[in-house]
Amino acid sequence: MRQVESLSHTRWECKYHIVFIPKYRRKTLFGQIRQELGEVFHRLARQKESLIEEGHVMADHVHMMISIPPKYAVSQVVGFIKGKSAIHIARTYLGRKRNYVGHHFWARGYFTSTVGRDEQVIREYIRHQEAEDRRIDQLQLM
Description:
This protein is an alpha+beta fold. It has helices at about 30-45, 75-95, 120-140, and strands at about 5, 10, 15-20, 50-55, 60-65, 110-115.
């Protein structure tokens, strides 16, 4: 599964586990928005020469494992993805021509960790996290 990428003078393998949430952790990522956001995130990542290798859009947060070239800062790529996707959501679903100041979709921060030798563990976590959340919720109801 290891794949070393290359730029003109660099060989690299930089993968990150990223998690971010909608503002106020509103459960707004459902239905049509949820299905379309995956494609939007992939397109935006490609614009920064990055690749989303694994991802899952939950009802109230987004998980992704993304490969980012070392010439870009993680904050730069995540900020770009969050900003441009918020504009897309505002235009497509909120009927706005512009993303006016004060109408933010994503919360300001994000979580990131580097992916090293435990890449497969993180991939499994992202794939099965929704089912695990449901199982924990069921245990708490009993």
